[in-house]
User: What shape does this take?
Amino acid sequence: MSEATAEQLDLLLELQATDHRVRRLQHQLDDLVEQQTLEGHRQRVVELGRAHDETRLELERASSDQRRLEREVDVLSERRDAERSRLYDGTVTNQREMQSLEAEIASVERRVAEHEDELLEVLETVEGLEQRLADLDAQRVTEEQRVEEATVARDDAAKGLLAELAELGVVRERQAQGLPEDLLARYDRLAERTGGTGVGKLEHNACTACRLDLSMADINDLLTGPPLATCPQCQRLLVIPA
Ligand SMILES: [Zn+2]
Assistant: This one.
């Protein structure tokens, strides 16, 4: 890494301060009642979407049961009708054969009736699921409306904070432009990994990032070393004042 100038190191500490202010503002935003209300409604939209997907799957299964039962009823009814005509068209004359044909017809009729009962139940299920889907759709429309209203309320409540954040965004960009790319990238990586603080300053024999006192030996090393070092305690960037 190229040697950063004293001005750039000051700028880096200023950028760190900007990032801290941004984080504080973001926490304040998250803590807004209006924000929490909004998130509640957003969460509800997600849950309704999930319930909708599950219900749609159930409906697909029930509809396929319905089609299967309808086909089976058709097949069995055709078979019953064919056997009935055989019974009456005079092709079967033998008494015993007629009796067995009658028994067969009765058995097929029982199975048709069973399938029809089952079909009725499935049709009720399908109807219930279709109703539920319609309800879920309606609830989602209402909830999405609430999200919109809550967004307006949140934006209104957060106006000041958002304006401040926008300003800080401009400041941050200006500060970032004044820094060498590799230094900024190193700071960003550290800040991301350690909860928002990527650089500290040696002050009163301690690192301002981790606030841990350093040993005299460490301090002597740091004071005789380059103006940008690594904190021996927290491994963040450490600016050593001249
Ligand atoms: Zn430290």
Q: What stands out?
A: The longest strand covers residues 199-203. The pocket of zinc ion is lined by residues 200, 207, 209-210, 212, 231, 233-234, 236 (CB under 6 Å). The chain has a mean pLDDT of 95. Residues 62 and 126 are 6 Å apart (CA to CA).
